[in-house]
Design a protein that fits this description.
Blueprint: E1 4-11, H1 27-31, H2 39-56, E2 60-63, H3 71-76, H4 83-93, H5 95-101, E3 113-116, E4 126-130, H6 137-140, H7 143-153, E5 160-163, E6 180-183, E7 192-197, H8 214-223, E8 231-235, H9 238-243, E9 252-255, E10 258-262, H10 269-279, E11 287-291, H11 298-304, E12 310-312, E13 320-325, H12 326-330, H13 332-343, E14 348-354, H14 357-360, E15 370-376, H15 377-382, H16 391-404, H17 417-434
Parallel strand pairs: 1-2, 4-5, 7-8, 10-11, 13-14
Antiparallel strand pairs: 1-15, 3-4, 6-7, 9-10, 12-13
Helix pairs in contact: 2-16, 4-5, 16-17
């Protein structure tokens, strides 16, 4: 077994961060639609979270924001002329479409891809499949640029397999690692990959959209050359989807041998846990922390984003640490549960709170902001070094943000061609800092 590390690749929040309210089923996004956003504060909050983990001794990477506005989308919709012409025409004819073209939702890197480490793959490579995010228009346009970024970072085809997004059809709807949990004894050991889906291909339902299909998850498992005996497909409960849990990571998070989940997370909880235990035979003994509905009502779990937290093996600590948003501390039921949990002798020994309010107001907590990639020393050496962070690089990124990002964005700003140019220049500076200028 090779030494391996869980590397958190956080999405750097882009300069067009705004409260567009475009994500059906995401209650925070809808609730804050049209509010004034602060892209500068949002990016600084994200970078400070990255700094916190780096200082703790964890490996930390970053993914750059995508080009915004997305002129490909606007041109496909029939707008033409100069950049300024396109923006001004779209603002008059279809401001909702312009809002989608400016979406900064790639900040939520948990939706960038599904990742399987080389320890799980029969071909011995680390695999990443870009999510098609086909359910929502504003996210469905991300995958070409995301794939290009992943290829630039994980370009060594002997060690990495970067797979393009699945077909853009409802039967293949895929939302990435937000519906995927990997469990193992140690990061470098073979593990069990749990794929959580909301519906079968061809199935429709009344209520909020189920964004992940079983067919999509099965297709990714095949492409990643995973052992059939070490994979589990679990159905997310319809009740939590309709309550606003648009991804599994809003009601469940796992790390190493521990699964932390809400009582209502799965359609068939006992069968799901039994399947995980069977798949993990000989590898690890599953530890579970179930949060009862009686202690934390599902509404509180969703608004506080208790489960959209990072569950981490913190250097120097025997038990896992839950890195949760401040909203979890400020919600009475979740704060009380966390206090009781850490007083016991279970696998989670501490909860640390972090301020990511700008992201939270758009419906994404600490776990949304990162893509977990388990990597060996050799794989770390083989990836693009410019995206691996140290204190100096975080400082340089924060300087760029302070210099190029606005501290206030409202809907009317999206109609201003000058804002589009600001976003372009900010991204160019970020790419240069990360050594990824080829992505311009």
């Amino acid at each position: 077994m090779s030494t391996a590390y869980e590397v958190n690749f956080d999405g750097l929040i882009g300069p067009s961060h705004n409260y567009g309210g475009m994500s059906e089923g995401n209650l925070a996004s809808a609730r804050n639609e049209g509010d004034v956003s602060n892209p500068r504060e949002a990016a600084i909050q994200g970078l400070e979270k990255m700094r916190l983990l780096l200082r703790a001794g964890l490996k930390q990477g970053v993914l750059p924001p995508l080009p915004r506005p997305n002129f490909d989308l606007l041109v496909a919709a029939g707008f033409s002329g100069s950049d300024a012409d396109i923006i001004e025409a779209a603002a008059r004819a279809n401001p909702k479409l312009l809002k989608a073209a400016y979406s900064a939702s790639s900040m939520w890197a948990a939706n960038a891809a599904t990742v399987s480490p080389s320890a799980d793959a029969s071909d011995g490579r680390l695999h990443l499949t870009t999510a098609n995010l086909s359910t929502m228009l504003h996210r469905s346009t991300e995958h070409p640029d995301t794939t290009a970024a992943l290829i630039s970072i994980f370009g060594d085809t002997d060690r990495f397999g970067v797979h393009a997004a699945l077909p853009m059809h409802a039967d293949f709807a895929d939302e990435g690692a937000a519906n995927h949990v990997r469990l193992c004894a140690e990061h470098g050991a073979e593990g069990v990959e749990v794929f959580v889906y909301g519906r079968d291909a061809g199935e429709s339902a009344v209520g909020f959209p189920a964004r992940q299909t079983k067919l999509a998850s099965e297709s990714i498992a095949r492409a990643h050359t995973l052992s059939q005996s070490r994979q589990v497909f679990a159905r997310q409960s319809r009740a939590v989807i309709d309550a606003g849990a648009f991804h599994n990571d809003v009601v469940c998070v796992g790390s190493l041998d521990t699964l932390f989940y809400h009582e209502l997370a799965f359609e068939e909880t006992d069968a799901t846990l039994d399947a995980i235990r069977k798949a993990g035979e000989g590898l690890f003994e599953l530890k579970t922390v179930m949060v009862p509905e009686a202690d934390v009502p599902i509404g509180d779990a969703i608004t506080s984003y208790l489960f959209n937290s990072q569950l981490l093996k913190w250097p120097g600590e025997d038990r896992l640490v839950l890195l949760a948003p401040l909203e979890t501390q400020e919600t009475q039921s979740t704060r009380a549960f966390c206090e009781k949990m850490v007083e016991g002798n279970g696998p989670i020994g501490r909860v640390q709170y972090v301020d990511v309010r700008q992201s939270m107001r758009n419906g994404g907590g600490p776990a949304c902001l990162r893509l977990r990639v388990v990597m060996t020393d050799e794989e770390l050496d083989a990836c693009h070094q410019g995206v691996l962070l140290d204190e100096d690089k975080i400082d340089r990124l924060q300087d760029i943000v302070a210099r190029t990002y606005r501290d206030k964005v409202v809907a009317a700003d999206l109609a201003d061609p000058a804002f589009a140019n600001e976003c372009r220049l900010a991204r160019e500076a970020i790419l240069e800092c990360l050594g990824l200028s080829e992505l311009d």
